[in-house]
């Protein structure tokens, strides 16, 4: 398979965000804001908005080696679209309106995937969105709303989770189109949604004895989330055992929760095609041992 199984294997982490709804011009929507690369023991980090510029990967790497480098690496793209949806929903946009953004966000993800393939990527992991209806932030924002329905088994907001599923379904259809166009490239969809739903349905099974919906660090309230009080503020409170919580600060999960997602993706059946059938390796090693969070 394209991803090297030797001791020199590498992972490339790519964070790309759309931000199309806030950019003032097409040029700004397409520019790469952060052009930098972090290299540490074979781990490569690339970040940017709306794609990855060749200069990003060439920075510090000989141009002749760049294509080979990324071709022998596992490229893990960051979970894209979350911030775009979060900013709009927190600003008071309706779920129906924000749903119209989804095709634009998906197109940006696909554009970034195509750019990485052009740069030589042969094995890419592209994640879907998390079940945002289980977020302490949204549970607080929509708390008491008349038209909100909750899943009796989880306490999550049904409409928001269906929104995330819509994003994921559209993304998977687009990724299948790329597979047809580039049969030589491994396109792996990572099902963050259902990997996370494991502990939202059964938090105690995974050691989350303080539940799955209340934030560890926040500003009080039924879900310990206050949009006017950030986690680091002096008036915020932080739990003593974050590994017993799923939610960290209302919008982000704890390291323990991300570890469950990672193990489900890396060792389990939450990828299409299944990750460990394409990349049959025993472990990913660098300082600190096995990668514990994404």
UniProtKB/TrEMBL annotation:
Which keywords describe this protein according to UniProt?
Glycoprotein
Named from the GO MF annotations, one term is: hydrolase activity, acting on ester bonds
Stored Pfam families:
Lipase_GDSL
Q: Does the keyword Calcium apply?
A: no
**Keyword Transmembrane tagged:** no
For this UniProt entry, which segments traverse the membrane? none
Q: Which InterPro entries match?
A: GDSL, SGNH_hydro_sf
The family note in this entry says: Belongs to the 'GDSL' lipolytic enzyme family.
Protein name stated in the entry: Sinapine esterase
Give the species.
Answer: Lactuca virosa
Q: What is the lineage of its organism?
A: Eukaryota, Viridiplantae, Streptophyta, Embryophyta, Tracheophyta
């Amino acid at each position: 398979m394209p991803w090297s199984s030797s001791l020199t294997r590498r992972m490339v982490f790519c964070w790309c965000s759309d931000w199309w709804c806030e950019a003032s011009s097409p040029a700004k929507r397409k520019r790469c804001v952060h052009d930098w690369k972090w290299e540490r023991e074979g781990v490569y980090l690339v970040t940017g908005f709306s794609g990855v510029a060749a200069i990003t990967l060439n920075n510090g790497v000989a141009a002749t080696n760049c294509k080979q480098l990324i071709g022998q690496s596992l490229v893990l793209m960051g979970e894209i679209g979350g911030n775009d949806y979060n900013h709009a929903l927190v600003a008071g946009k309706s779920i129906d309106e924000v749903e119209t953004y989804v095709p634009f966000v998906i197109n940006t993800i696909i554009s970034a995937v195509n750019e990485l393939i052009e740069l030589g990527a042969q094995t890419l992991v592209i994640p879907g969105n998390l079940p945002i209806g289980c977020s302490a932030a949204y549970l607080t924002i929509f708390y008491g709303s008349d038209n909100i329905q909750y899943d009796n088994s989880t306490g999550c907001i049904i409409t928001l989770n269906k929104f995330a599923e819509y994003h994921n379904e559209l993304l998977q259809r687009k990724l299948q189109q790329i597979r047809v166009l580039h049969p030589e490239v491994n396109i792996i969809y990572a099902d963050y949604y259902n990997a996370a739903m494991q502990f939202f349905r059964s938090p105690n099974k995974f050691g989350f004895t303080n539940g799955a919906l209340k934030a560890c660090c926040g500003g009080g309230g039924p879900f310990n989330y206050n949009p006017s009080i950030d986690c680091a503020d002096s008036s915020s409170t932080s739990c003593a055992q974050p590994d017993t919580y799923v939610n960290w600060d209302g919008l982000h999960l704890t390291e323990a929760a991300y570890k469950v997602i990672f193990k489900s993706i890396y060792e389990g059946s939450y990828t299409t095609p299944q990750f460990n059938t394409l990349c049959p390796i025993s472990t990913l090693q660098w300082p600190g041992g096995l990668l514990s969070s994404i």
